[in-house]
Structures are given as C-alpha cells and as structure tokens.
Write a structure and sequence with these properties.
The chain has 477 residues and is α+β, with helices and mostly antiparallel strands. The protein contains 14 helices and 17 strands. It has one domain: Amidase signature (AS) enzymes. The chain is globular and about 60 Å long.
C-alpha cells in the first residue's frame, strides 16, 4: 500500500506542513479508495465531495501562504454518524432522522474543524449506537474489511472499517459498552476510550452519566493520539470535563516497558470468553509478557458488574429514547426498543443499588492498581460473526442472558471508568483480526497511551502479532 491515503496520519500531517504533500492530493487519494472499496463494505454512508474538495483547496492555499496550521490541518476525517455535522446528512442510523441535515456542528465537530480537519463524510453506525453490530434500516449493514459477510461490530463500525482500508487516516468513535473498542478489535485498528471528561460530551442525553465517552480511532496509537489532542478540552456543559486534559502529553514518550508491572486477565474474572479466543490471548501473552517488569495473571474484583451495567444502561435509554419510543415505536430498531423497555422496568430501589455497587466497584478497581500499573485483557470475547446475526446468543454452549452479555469484556470495564486502548495483536484462529485492551484506572490516560504505543511497536516486529492488513484487491473487485 503506497497511496497517500495509506500514510499514517502523523506522517501525512508532517508532510503537509513541510509542503511535501498537498491536502488536495491526500483527499483525492481517499476519495479514490472510497470509490474502489466502499461498495464492498458500506463504511461511508453520507459524503459531500464538493465541500471536501473546496476545504482541501483552502487548506492547500493556507499551507502555501505560510499560515499557522492546526493539529489536523488538511487531514480527511470520518465522522461517526452519531455526531451532527453542518450541512451534511446526520441520521443517527434511525429512520426518524433519515433526511435530517443539521445547520450546525456538534461542539466536538466544530472543534475538529477548528484544528484544520477536512470533514469528508459520515461513517455507519447502528441506530443511536445501540448494539455491537453496525447495521440499520437507513443504510444497511457495514461489512468487516477482512470478510464483508461478517460484522465489523459496533457501534463505531463504519469508522473502524474506513480506517482499516485506508479510506481516511483518522476517524471519530464513541464508547458506552465497547462501541469503540470492539470494532477496533474486529477490524485490526486502534481505538482509544479516554477517561470521562478528557473529551467533552456536552450533548450527552444524561449529563451525570459518565459511561458514554467520545474518543479517537486510527491505524496506530500515534495517529489516535494525534486526533485525541484535537478532541480534548474543557467544556462546562459536560459536568465531567476536568483538568485530566492536562495529562494528555503533547508527544508520546518512549516509555521503558521493563519498569511496568502488568496484570493479565483472560476474562476479568466474570466475562464469557470463547475458548478459542482465550487460547489465542494466552498464547499471544507468552510472546510479549517478558518485556514487562512483572506480568502475572490477576483478575480485578468486578462482582455484581452485570446487573449494574444493565440497570444503568436501561435507565440511560429511558432518558435518551423514552419519548421516541412513545411517539415512533414503528420506526425504531429492536435494540433501542429492548434497552428502553428494560429501563422502564427498573425500580428506584434497583437504580439506587446499582449506584451503590458501581461506586464500590470503582473504588475496588482503583485499589487493584496499587500492585500493578496496567491491566491487559482481550478486546472481544468472540471472533467476528456473520453480520446478518444481530448479536451473540451463546458462548461455549452457555446461553447469554441478554443481547449485551457477549460484550462484558468491554462493558465491565466501562462500569469502573477506565482509560483503555485497543491495539491489534495479529489474527485469531479464524484468520480474523484479534485485539487486546491496555487498561488503566480513571485519569491514567498518559500512561495507558504510552504503554500501548511501546507495546504496539514490539508487536509489529513479530509476524504473529503485527497489525493485519485487509486484501484491498479483493475488496475492490
């Protein structure tokens, strides 16, 4: 892969600043890749090529004039279709908004434009981000770049796919129960879930719920870090916006992994994991665990986490979608209806108990890191499955009690508000991408990013663990 669209975002930005790569040339390369591959995967679902070309030309003129350039100057950017974009169709994957064209950007999108990003288009997502299979009744399903008949997961599936095949160098994602991390794992790219407040989310339906965050996605930790630097800020409209932003380093340090104590967990002590995935994880751990000061199998205490997550998620859906359910039930997909109806059944006592247990789990998770610096676990519980299957109903012969349970390896961590980075770690037994989570406690963003960056380079030296690359020729055909 030698096209400009395949360049790392950090490299492309550096070349643009040095007048060695034109933003116009980069955009045209991305558009060419989209034209060649998007019919196979359906990652980009709304675009305004005319506006993108105009923005690229303007970015080129600014470079040639010697203007001060933003962090993302001239970089084409994919926006998950859960964020409003001015004059560009924004549907949230829902028939309710199938023809909606906002007049203004969300605050976070306006900020990225201010840093020079060229908003190329919207990437596909399940309706309102509900569910880990990117499909909806507006745009249909998004296929995995390694096998388009299989899911790319969700809800940031379109962004993950577009990155994996070089349609854009960077893309936005969001994460509640794993919506950013699972697609990254399924598509062989990097996804970063920051601590709450690092990236402001003033549009969050329930401002006091810290579970939903927005974060960056890229083909490398350095690329995700570049986008994160443009996303961070303080916004008083988000009650969790805080000085954690000051902990995001301008540059990723070359941290010495030989000083890092690591806890290894196959299932967090409470999550269903397919036996094949467990074997793959444990086998991969053997290839890199020796680089750390200490690496021992330890599980955090997350007893009760499933009830907490299901309760909190249901209540959140009532707040976000209760009115829509009453007015537009026939236009809503199954996952939104299911979550909202579960939330409507939650009692005040159950919600109060969930808050008490979540607080206990959060404190226990902080205590877990008194003896270790970083936790490493699988990023997904199963290998990518056919995208016409909405969710995983059974793991190792055990029926899942809810449609979300197969995502426990990610949502259990959501409940304790971590910083978590997913990095590729080769292929699984089915020749599909396999990823691992690098996890730290709330506020440990700098350490998590630096460990992930250092480990990523070690994994890249081993053919068994390096980032897998999709077959572009096959997708284009």
């Amino acid at each position: 892969m030698t096209e400009p669209c395949d360049l790392p975002a950090t490299t492309a930005r550096r070349l643009i600043g040095a007048k060695r790569l034109s933003p116009v040339e980069l955009l045209e390369s991305c558009l060419k890749r989209i034209e060649a591959t998007n019919k196979s995967v359906n990652a980009f679902v709304a675009m305004d090529e005319k506006a993108a070309r105009k923005a690229a030309k303007q970015a080129e003129n600014q470079v040639m004039r010697g203007d001060e350039l933003g962090l993302l100057h001239g970089l084409p950017l994919g926006i998950k279709d859960l964020q409003a974009t001015a004059n560009l169709r924004t549907t949230w994957g829902s028939l309710i908004y199938k023809d909606h064209v906002p007049k203004e950007d969300d605050a976070g999108i306006a900020q990225l434009r201010g840093h020079g990003a060229n908003i190329l288009g919207k990437t596909n997502t399940p309706e309102f981000g509900a569910g880990a299979n990117t499909r909806n009744r507006v745009y249909g399903a998004t296929g995995n770049p390694f096998d388009p008949t299989k899911t790319c997961s969700g809800s940031s599936g379109g962004s993950a796919v577009s990155l994996a095949i070089g349609q854009v160098p960077i893309a936005t994602g969001s994460d509640y129960g794993g919506s950013l991390r699972t697609p990254a794992a399924f598509c062989g790219i990097v996804g970063y879930r920051p601590s709450p407040g690092v990236v402001p989310v003033p549009e969050r339906a329930i401002g006091l719920s810290p579970f939903q965050v927005q974060g960056p996605m890229g083909r490398s930790v350095a690329d995700a870090h570049l986008l994160l630097r443009a996303q961070i800020g303080m916004d008083p409209r988000d009650p969790y916006s805080n000085d954690n932003v000051m902990r995001i380093p301008e540059y990723l340090a070359d941290i010495d992994l030989g000083t890092i104590r690591v806890a290894i967990s196959t299932d967090l002590g409470c999550c269903p994991i397919d036996e094949s995935i467990a074997r793959t994880f444990q086998s991969r751990v053997k290839t890199f665990s020796n680089v750390f000061s200490e690496a021992q199998y330890m599980d955090p205490d997350l007893d009760g986490v499933h009830d907490v997550f299901e309760t909190c998620r249901g209540v959140y859906f009532v707040g976000a979608h209760g009115e829509r359910l009453a007015k537009y039930r026939d236009l809503l997909d199954r996952n939104v209806i299911d979550n909202t109806e579960r939330g409507l059944k939650v009692t005040a006592a159950e919600m109060a108990q969930a808050g008490v247990v979540q607080s206990k789990l959060y404190r226990q998770f902080l205590g877990f890191f008194q003896d270790v610096d970083i936790l490493i676990c699988p990023a997904a519980s199963v290998s990518p499955f056919p995208h016409d299957q909405l969710f995983i109903e059974e793991i190792n012969g055990e029926k899942m009690p809810t449609y979300m349970r197969w995502l426990a390896i990610s949502y259990a961590l959501t409940t304790v508000l971590p910083a978590a980075c997913v990095i590729p770690c080769g292929l699984d037994d089915f020749n599909m991408p396999f990823g691992i989570q690098i996890v730290g406690p709330n506020g440990s963003d700098a350490l998590v990013l630096e460990v992930a960056h250092a480990l990523e380079q070690i994994l890249a030296d081993n053919p068994l663990t390096r980032r897998p690359i999709p077959d572009l020729q096959k997708l284009s055909a």
